[in-house]
Automatic annotation (TrEMBL):
Its cofactor is FAD. Keywords: FAD, Flavoprotein, Oxidoreductase. It comes from Penicilliopsis zonata CBS 506.65. One of its GO terms (molecular function) is FAD binding. Residues 2-341 form the FAD-binding domain. Belongs to the PheA/TfdB FAD monooxygenase family. This is FAD-binding domain-containing protein.
């Protein structure tokens, strides 16, 4: 019997599995397909997701297979004018990953799978979830394992099985929203001659039609995306058909497609659940919310669902209060609702306007949980003038100097201290002694003038001397206390202990 059974080895399930496994939780992850899925699919990784990858130990692999800040050019074929979409985002001391990264989804999943293997977890392929029943302590799933019906029991079950989620259906959770059959995107991986790989290019006819070709880093392919007219009957497996769409939309005939690989038809679906949980069963990723690909939000939101739920399940399995799990839906459901609205607006902009606006909200660095019961600030409201607030993402800070008597000084960043499954206590004060708790893994960083010689840490947090900041394992600020710090930290952790 595993601690957690995860259904679905897409990005959400893999992110959850990594987050749990690094905390020593036993994970069983099943996948209906017989092998990892091919295809570029979600190719946009947002800066906040890159920070998650930094924490989970896969950032180097992901960066090596992707390209940051790829320029996007849009040509209006009616007027033959080209302009660049969006503005470049440069890293800052508090935001080391400022721009989106383009990388095929199968590469991202490959990075997760390699990390999981390091953590001793392998995906069980060709195992299809059918149904479940649960008691007060256990959930038992019936599965088809290589064609044979079996049961798997676990303390918790998480459905990360995509938009058509069988776990969601088995739990009786409705998927509320709309499907727009008329809004369809053809997406295909192709080889391209006659176009350089320096930029993502789009052609628009000014009447709502567009076609795009984005070079896929670490491959020789491009991802082609085009919006189909409502009466178009697409032939997804025909290269001449797709070439015809490109020629007609781009008004060019010197760009030659070949070697059609993965292709798919996407229909506009805007749906989400009203609850992320039924007893011992949770939903994450597309199983809980689906939205247009515009703005590259879907996969990122699913990964961050898994990351949010992962540390909470691990803490509860190690003895924290089960009430902690209620905060998963409270924190993540409003994020999904915001993403549904943002991505739908961006898709409508893409369809209806000549200028495609990129919105800084798509970077997801502003995602936070200020109204969560896990976000606490003991300062008087009028004193909360620092740079950061409880519930914000914890900003990074470079130039931290660690000196020991026995070796040369080492320079590192705050994210180096945060990496791992622990809480981090930043003490801008003398010292706070935290009483041990069975579920608690905590590291304390004393912010001295020697450590923060560059001043980036104090600048990023903007707090006066005497303050403490408690950072959660998922890199969000749980507590800021300015006075009575010892008692504030103990009271915060006592509540998590239940
Ligand atoms: C054309 C297109 C472009 C996109 N572009 C972007 C983008 O640029 N950026 C972005 O962020 N998102 C994008 N998305 C969305 C993105 O692909 C999804 O949001 C993402 O894959 C969802 O991840 P997931 O893990 O929740 O679900 P999935 O990736 O769907 O994974 C679910 C897994 O569960 C498995 N499964 C299903 N049923 C069962 C069962 N009964 N038993 C066992 N296993 C099961 C499936 O086989 C699958 O592997 C795009 C989507 C499309 C279609």
């Amino acid at each position: 019997m595993a601690d957690v059974l995860i259904v679905g080895a897409g990005p959400a399930g893999l992110a959850l599995a990594c987050t749990l496994a690094r905390s020593g939780v036993s994970v069983h992850i099943i996948e209906a397909q017989t092998a990892p899925a091919p295809g570029s699919r979600a190719k946009g990784l947002q800066p906040r997701t890159l920070e998650v990858f930094d924490d989970l130990g896969i950032i180097e692999t992901v960066l090596s297979h992707g390209r940051l800040a790829i320029p996007i050019y849009s040509t209006d074929t009616a007027t033959d004018t080209t302009h660049r979409i969006g503005k470049p985002h440069e890293p800052t001391p508090s935001t080391p990953y400022a721009a989106s990264l383009v990388s095929p989804q199968w590469r991202t999943e490959g990075a997760f799978l390699a990390r999981l293997a390091e953590l001793g977890v392998t995906v069980s392929y060709n195992v299809k979830f059918l149904s479940f029943h649960q008691s007060e302590t256990t959930v038992t799933a019936t599965v088809l394992d290589n064609g044979e019906e079996k049961t798997i029991s676990a303390s918790w079950l998480v459905g990360c099985d995509g938009g058509h989620s069988s776990v969601r259906r088995a739990a009786g959770i409705p998927f509320l929203g709309e499907t727009f059959e008329d809004v369809r995107l053809l997406v295909a991986d192709v080889h391209v001659e006659g176009l350089d790989r320096e930029a993502w290019r789009m052609w628009r006819d000014g009447k709502g039609g567009f076609i795009g070709l984005c070079p896929l880093p670490s491959t020789e392919e491009f991802q082609l995306q085009t919006l189909l007219l409502p009466d178009e009957r697409p032939d997804l497996s025909s290269l001449p058909y797709i070439q015809g769409l490109l020629n007609a939309q781009s008004k060019r005939n010197d760009i030659i497609l070949s070697q059609l690989g993965w292709s798919s038809l996407w229909r506009e679906n805007v749906r989400m659940v009203a609850t992320y949980r039924s007893g011992r069963v949770f939903l994450a990723g597309d199983a809980a919310h689906v939205h247009p690909p515009a703005g590259g939000q879907g996969m990122n939101t699913g990964i961050q669902d898994g990351y949010n739920l992962g540390w909470k399940l691990a803490a509860v399995l190690h003895g924290a209060s089960p009430a902690l799990l209620d905060t998963y839906e409270k924190e993540r459901l409003p994020v999904a609702a915001g993403v549904l609205s943002l991505s739908t607006t961006l898709l409508n902009d893409t369809i209806s306007t000549v200028t495609i606006a990129r919105d800084d909200r798509t970077l997801q660095l502003g995602v936070g949980y200020p109204t969560s019961s896990l976000s606490r600030d003991t300062r008087e409201v009028h004193l909360r003038q620092g740079t950061v607030q409880a519930g914000n993402r914890a900003p990074d800070a470079p130039g931290l100097v660690i000196s020991t008597q026995s070796s040369d000084a080492t320079v590192c960043r705050l994210f180096d201290f945060l990496r791992g499954d622990h809480f981090t206590l930043l003490c801008f004060t003398e010292t706070v002694d935290v009483a041990p708790r069975p579920w608690l893994h905590i590291k304390t960083v004393h912010v001295t003038d020697e450590l923060d010689a560059s001043g980036h840490l104090r600048a990023a947090y903007g707090l006066s001397d005497g303050a403490v900041v408690l950072i959660r394992p998922d890199g969000y600020i749980g507590l800021i206390a300015q006075e009575g710090c010892q008692a504030a930290v103990e009271s915060y952790l006592d509540e998590l202990s239940g």
